[in-house]
Amino acid sequence: MSPVGAPRWRVVVVGNGMVGSRFANDLVACLSDDEVSAVEITVLGAEEYEPYNRVLLSEVVAGKVDLAAIGLPGADDDRVTVRRGTEAIAIDRSARRVITADGAYPYDAVVLATGAAARVPDICGITDQAGGLPRGAHVLRTLDDARGIVAASVNARHAVVIGAGVLGLEVACGLAYRGVPVSVVHGGASPMDRQLGTDAGRVVEASLARLGVHTWTDARTERVRTDRHGRVCGVELRTPDDAADVPSSGAAGGANLVDIEADLVVLACGATPETGLARAAGLAVGRGVVVGDDLASPDDARVFAIGDCAEPPEGGTGLIAQGWDQSRRLAAALASAVRPREDAPVGGSTATGRLPDHRPAGTGEGDRPSMALRLATSAVVRPVAPEPEPGTPAGGAPARAAVTGVDVVRVKAVGLEIVTMGVSGAARAPEHRALTLSDPASGRHVEVVVADGRLVGATCVGAADVGADLTATYTRRVPVPADPAHLLLRPVAPPPVQAATPTQMPDQTTVCQCNGVTKGDLVACWHDGARSVADLARGTRATTGCGGCRDVVCGIADWLAAADPSDDGVRDTAASGTAGRPVLSPHPQRS
């Protein structure tokens, strides 16, 4: 405990999104009650909303989930001050203050978790318009963006999605699910060409066609046309000579100019890390805010960056798993910096905030328990930000390989199942052994890449169950069979009977892979007082990642409520899981 009157150690978190809000909770969890009282934590969020799951915004567009379903638990501690609607304007490093329009916030350590902004490509009719995007053109990065696309889809006659990465495919399938005719325009040779090989991409393209989505590949968007009212009315493309199947004006150089009528355009062209604050403060910036293994800026030991805005030595993956891993590491390190210890006698306002060790702290959170393969199908890490379009320079030095297990990408669009992880397609090295099963007629493509007896990469299109098994094998680093061909198919023998009720589910079964939450964790949280899905989410973080485990968590909550009838009202939010979730609307600030 700090002496009475001792200065409090001040941590300012810039960003109240999926990573910034998580960091505030992680830091509080790493400190005892006495230690927390010696730390002043302030979170500054530019948006007026409580934290929400950006990963699920495409499912809001599709109408698969409502706004209440994507709320995330905020900083549930009175000792954390959250300032929503408060945008950081500058960092005064000499005075150690974060400047906002409402005042200045002094810090001993500042954590940048500003995320990334949607990338708007330089297209005639898009970037040359006064006042921003023309009416009918949208990006998808925030809750307000999703609301705008949903509203525009109601009367849309035809939509064009520019970009066929993860986000582009999810948006296209979502709009098609709403009954809007959709075309996807992509500059690469096939959809998701940064994650998928050409053969897998062609299977995806055929699957999209069955959903009514037309795909234009190797195509460049020349212009977005607007009418005299400034509203989008069409898109002009330049395509290979043999790709156009609609009337075109023709062009020199073996290419066609194709004019597509459209009154809704969605730009899904990747994301750009938010580095403005760091750059203006004189900190090193590449593609993102440059940080070392300790997540601190090399120019200032008191300034840290995590999540999509950061550029660590291994490179940014754009996946939420990396941001959450950084949050855990930094929280543990800053907690040790303010904790009085003989080997680290820092505290009060004199703490440096330097990470003592760049590896995850031994809290047990980094060691995931065994995984139930069947449940893994709907609980895989998904990206927070779409990949840049092919040809977009990443900037900076070549990235080191990502840590195995946190680079799993899942597309769970309506009618389209894709899971990819690790090495795939042209990224294979000579020492890698690759086996492929491709069945375009059924919309199925499975590829596994093996090295040194381990699965180092896999691609699954239209094979959800196989994808679940491979995800488990990859993330747990399970040795593969002597004949890796066995990885391509499910066993011919009938699988074990799945648990009919949670009673038959082992406690070590992983329900939420994104956060490593087991059935036993959920039961323990219930016994500690949780009485709703929202309570379970706050206590264990289940459902706060990709959202694929929500149905399972709701079922377990129902089962726990029925098994414990002595508690009045325990079923009030278990079944639907909506009541009691964070409300995604502005409300008075907590001071």
Descriptive account of the structure:
The structure is a single chain. Mean pLDDT is 80; it is low at 1-6, 246-252, 342-405 and 566-591. Helix 1 (20-30) runs parallel beside helix 8 (320-338) and helix 11 (519-527) crosses helix 12 (533-540). A hairpin with a 4-residue loop joins strand 24 (433-439) and strand 25 (444-451). By secondary structure, the protein is of the alpha/beta class.
Give the helix/strand layout:
Layout: E1 9-14, H1 20-30, H2 33-37, E2 39-45, H3 57-62, E3 80-84, E4 88-92, E5 97-100, E6 103-106, E7 109-112, E8 116-118, E9 137-139, H4 143-153, E10 159-162, H5 166-177, E11 182-185, H6 198-210, E12 213-216, E13 220-226, E14 232-240, E15 255-261, E16 264-267, E17 271-273, H7 276-280, E18 289-290, E19 296-297, E20 300-305, E21 310-311, H8 320-338, H9 373-376, E22 408-413, E23 416-422, E24 433-439, E25 444-451, E26 454-461, H10 464-476, E27 510-512, E28 517-518, H11 519-527, H12 533-540, H13 550-563
Helix pairs in contact: 1-8, 11-12, 11-13
